[in-house]
Amino acid sequence: MFPSGRKPILALPQVKKYYRITVDNEQCDGCRLCTVFCPLNVLEIGGETNRRMLHYASIANPLSCLGCEYCERICPTAAIFVCEVNSEQETLA
Questions:
Q1: Which terminus of the chain has fewer Cβ atoms in its 10 Å neighbourhood, N or C?
Q2: Which residues share a beta bridge with 15?
Q3: What is the largest CA-CA distance in the chain?
């Protein structure tokens, strides 16, 4: 193919996607796999404990989430859920 000298008139719009992370505190056993595999350190192990006296994961930086779902996939107890939401307010809710 021949190289084209054409350039776009307008830049492509960059749509910011937002994701809500939900952690089932009672299901989480605090294995820390989610904190290790998260590329942006969205999750951390908090100081609170659940009914089984285990420290569980909590969301440290919810707006930094890219929606890669590494944490959801790596969780051995299936305690983390990632879903796309429409606005920043829904992310923090």
A1: N
A2: none
A3: 66
Q: For residue 1, what pLDDT band results from cuts at 50, 70 and 90?
A: low
Of 67, 93, 92, nearest to 82 by C-alpha is 67
Q: Which structure tokens are listed for 53?
A: 């006296």
The pair of structure tokens assigned to 82 is: 């990632």
Residues contacting residue 30 through CB under 8 Å, at least 6 positions apart: 45, 54, 55, 56, 57
Instruction: State the pLDDT confidence band at 90, using cuts at 50, 70 and 90.
Output: confident
pLDDT digits (tens, 9 = 90+) for 11-42: 766 778 999 999 999 999 999 999 999 999 99
Dihedral sign for Cα atoms in the order 39, 26, 89, 16: positive
Domains of the chain listed by start with CATH number:
18-92 (3.30.70.20)
